[in-house]
Amino acid sequence: MVTQIPVALSANRSFALPMAVTLYSLLRTASASTRLKLYLLGNDLHPGLVDSVRESVQVIEVPLPNSLVSVSKRYPPEALAPVLLDQVIDEERILFLDCDLLVLDDLQELWNSDLCGHPLAAVRDGAHPYHPDGSSYFNCGVLLLDLKRWREQHTGRRVLELLHTTPCRFFHQSALNRLYKND
Description:
alpha/beta; six-stranded mixed β-sheet; 7 helices
């Protein structure tokens, strides 16, 4: 049985080389029973990179709203892509990968993870594994998202509100950790 896995990545031209490594490793590790559907988010994607991947797998380019440009002076608009997936992609569930990862194994086991009703699954951050109160702090480089729940909980809007009203050291990652600290 073939499993289709929608995967989203975001970048701009300045991250073309790391994104190429991520995409190459993603394609190389996919088993014969995995069919990838890639959503590449950004307003300045490297066209040669997109074209080379399109030869091997279904690719959907997704521009990001121009309103994101003013959200942060430190981070490019593409950094907010995982927060906005529910608004720009019509899927029930999606796997988001940072564009600077090396994929070492087929994604099916991760894709088949039971979210147990939670809106997301993530791994504990290696550099900052805990909040000051001892609860787990997660990294947003690999996120398995239930976009239906994400939409129901208005997660994207809530993250943007936090970014505008509260200091968030690690941008959307800090905001998501605040929202889903014990979830």
